[in-house]
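Dear colleagues,

I hope this message finds you well. In preparation for our joint manuscript, I am sending the Transglutaminase-like putative cysteine protease (Edaphobacter modestus) sequence together with its predicted structure, so that both groups work from identical material. I would be grateful if you could confirm receipt.
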Amino acid sequence: MPLIFLPIPDCRLTPTGNLSHNVTHSRRIRIKAMLIRAEFDIQFHLPAPLTVIAMLRLHPSLDPCLQEPETLTIEHIDLETRQQLAGREYLDGFGNRCLRFNAPGGALRLAGSSLVRVNGIADEVNAGAPQHPIDQIPDDVLQFLLGSRYCEVDRMLEIACGLFGSTPEGWQRAITIRDWVHNHVQFDYQAARPTKTALDVFTERIGVCRDFQHLAITLTRAMNIPARYVTGHLGDIRIPYSGPGDFSAWYEVYLGGRWWSMDARHNVPRIGRLLMAVGRDATDVAITTSFGSSLLTHFYVESNEVDEAGEKVALPLASAPATATIPPSGVTI
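The corresponding structure tokens are as follows:
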């Protein structure tokens, strides 16, 4: 059966409850919608009062897909009392939804939930997507060719050219880079550290989700393809259970006039990515940034397909539950 690849989802529903997609030449394709419930509960111990910036809500582009108001609770917990903390929301320079607030010392809890209706299509593929000449790249996209905190494009130019200089431009070059990173870097939570850069990952050949993406982004930019870092929810949806949930990182490349999702860690088309924030690298999209000392004490994140009654949809060949793992201290996803 031939596959049909669609543009960015249009979350409007038809009268029958299907998602409606407008594609080229006014063709309309209807795809059965799916519901995804994303939720989190993160807690810290704060030795002293501090200011926090949180990126825990979904990206504004998903607002039309929300099936109920998105929730975000900020609580200071002191013995038996819980105090709701007020914050101020704003959009950063990349269009991400941020919340800034002041927290007193003690226990801090951040919890939230969202219910989103999306299509059941895996990551889109377009083998013919062309690479843009530099002078045709939009002004707001040019910044994603430049080096950044974790992506040392200048230091990896020669490496990238040696590895990928002879590959065909465009989509083929982008996926060749993605595949190379996936095949040459080993995933290990214990290898995480907050200062690890793309060049470190290339040298050590080990890291966590964000390290895979940083290396792929850097090599992609070095070959003059704009690439940006993405964070969001990516649960085990229609695949076997892989362990306790977490926030996820992937990246996007700009080809053929639009952004395409890439994932150097998983390296297979996935269903159910829920975008939270985009940026140059992990610095721009940290889930929480605290201006002072904080200790992570509890970490729960889940993203699951649910039915119309709100019940989790069973996974195929689910394995036994594993013990929850808290990411190493100081590491943002």
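For the figure legend, we might mention the following. Residues 1-10, 12-29, 318-333 have pLDDT under 50 and may be disordered. The CA atoms of residues 27 and 104 lie 55 Å apart.

With kind regards,
E.M.
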